[in-house]
Specification:
178 residues; mainly alpha; Rna Polymerase Sigma Factor, Chain: A; 2 domains
Length: 178
């Protein structure tokens, strides 16, 4: 089997989660096709050095991570971060969670932009760690290898990111409930 066919065979198994991961990392969603194309081109150029039998998924996610971080740096500033939560709004938390659990479909219909803004409000390492673990399905050890950082850092970033998302999305849910 030639190099191109082997590469495409490996890529077919990771394309969907990789696309979701890259979409979540990018500051500008319209850059998704360019980011994927750049990552795929870099990966294909380096594929000759890829060792068969090693984890292709981790290898290409690492390339995609570095590609997106570079694109984000070139783009300048991320999208605006949602406003901070007023203290009095925190008092309604339990009510908001109960309402979400009672009718989650109604809430989820209008979620996309708010979820995206909440994810983009995370720092780059928090966002990358969270998306690798949550979307990519990697274990924290694998995410640490991909991001080239200690596993404790990845675990901390994932924990903080999940907490921040809970807070920001609870604010969205309370506003949605009117």
């Amino acid at each position: 089997m030639d190099l191109r066919a082997r590469f495409l065979g490996h890529l077919a198994h990771v394309r969907e989660p990789l696309t979701a991961y890259v979409r979540g990392l990018l500051w500008n969603p319209s850059d998704l096709p360019d980011a994927l194309q750049s990552a795929f081109l870099v990966a294909f150029r380096k594929f000759g050095a890829f060792e068969e039998g090693t984890d292709f998924r981790a290898w290409i996610f690492r390339i995609a991570t570095l590609t997106v971080f570079g694109m984000n740096r070139k783009a300048g500033t991320p999208l605006p971060i949602p406003e901070e939560v007023p203290a009095e709004v925190e008092l309604d938390r339990e009510y908001a969670y109960d309402e979400i659990l009672r009718d989650p479909d109604r809430l989820l219909q209008s979620f996309d932009d708010d979820v995206r803004r909440a994810v983009l409000a995370l720092t780059e390492p928090e966002r990358a760690a969270l998306l690798l673990v949550s979307v990519g399905g990697f274990r924290c050890r694998e995410a640490a290898d991909i991001l080239d950082m200690p596993i404790g850092s990845v675990m901390g970033y994932v924990g903080r990111a999940r907490g921040m998302l809970r807070e920001r999305l609870a604010v969205f849910a309370r506003g949605w409930m009117g």
